Amino acid sequence: MSKTPLSFTIFLSLTLFFFPSITASSITDRYLYGGCTQQKYTPNSPYESNLNSMLTSLVNSATYLSYNNFTMVGGSQQDVIYGLYQCRGDLSMPDCATCVARAVTKAGDMCRGSCGGAVQLDGCYVKYDNATFLGVEDKVVVLKQCGPSVGYNPEGMGSRDAVLGGLAGSGGPFREGGSGVVRGVAQCMGDLSYGECQDCLSEAIAKLKSDCGTADYGDMFLGKCYARYSIGGAHQASKAHGKSGKGGERTFAMVIGILAGVAILIIFLAFLSKICGRQGK
Fold first, then answer.
1. Hey, CA dihedral for 233, 239, 243, 246, is it positive or negative?
2. Which pTM does this prediction carry?
3. Residues 6+ apart with CB under 8 A from 84
4. What's the CATH superfamily of 141-240?
5. pLDDT tens profile 132-151
6. Do domains 6-134+249-280 and 141-240 have the same CATH topology?
7. What whole-number distance in Å separates Cα of residue 197 and Cα of residue 190?
8. β-pairing, 117-121 with 124-129?
């Protein structure tokens, strides 16, 4: 039976032990969707070692950057692994770090033994795979959520369309706006060019308007971008579209120091695991 990499399991255990806020229920940690590749890796293989390094790098990097991507190379092409994470553009760094750690934990539990996996939480996204996807536009619908219809209200729907139009015409990978009781947010993955971002968001917004119709809230997640709106706070996660608070700052100062220590411990345990594996053969 496939297992989660030993050193990565220990890393997650220590992280969750020192940072109980990571396991606490919060709107940014709300699970939206996820999936795993069918292909499996061989236990104790170079790929498993690279996967362990990848997941650790994603968590470490999220303590100081809201987006990053990595490519872990190996002795052969089959050992190469690609990965990225991205936090919602309005999250503070403490909340970003907490969210990514939570997403990586979810991916590790859900995709044990799989070569690739992806998890979208309300506040962040994590993906890794042995097939390259970095810089590749992806407009496949991965999640659609529409609230109950409130009937056609010219004022409400007009404001919604204006907000979504403003998001489509704005610049930058993260966009938010509002008009009256309508709030909207949209974001592209950081590995897309400006033109690819515009193309992806235009399609997401068009699908959101056509598929959700007169719903009081809607979410449209494509492979590399998303668009969301809420009318009158109807969205069950509408609070997630506001500025994140300072709750995560209580643990953020600890994250930096302890992650550095844990990283050293991971290297030692990975080395020890390989030695024990050879002796057990």
1. positive
2. 0.77
3. 58, 67, 68, 69, 70, 126, 127, 128, 134, 189, 190, 191
4. Gnk2 domain, C-X8-C-X2-C motif (3.30.430.20)
5. 999 999 999 999 999 999 88
6. yes
7. 9
8. antiparallel
The C-alpha atoms of residue 262 and residue 276 are separated, in whole angstroms, by 20
Residue-wise pLDDT tens digits, 3-20: 445 444 444 444 444 444
Residue the block writes with tokens 């409400």: 156
The set of residues, in sequence order, having a beta carbon less than 8 Å from that of 156 and lying 6+ positions away, is: 150, 181, 182, 231, 232
259: CB partners within 8 A, 6+ apart: 15, 59, 60, 63
Extents of the domains making up the chain: 6-134+249-280, 141-240
Q: Does residue 34 contact residue 126 with C-beta atoms inside 8 Å? A: no
Token pair belonging to 15: 């992280």
Phi/psi for 226 (5° steps) reads -150, 160
Question: What token pair was written down for 202?
Answer: 């235009």
Neighbours of 145 (CB within 10 A): 19
Which CATH class name applies to 6-134+249-280?
alpha beta
Give the 3-state secondary structure of residue 72.
Answer: strand
Q: How far apart are CA 140 and CA 130, in angstroms?
A: 20
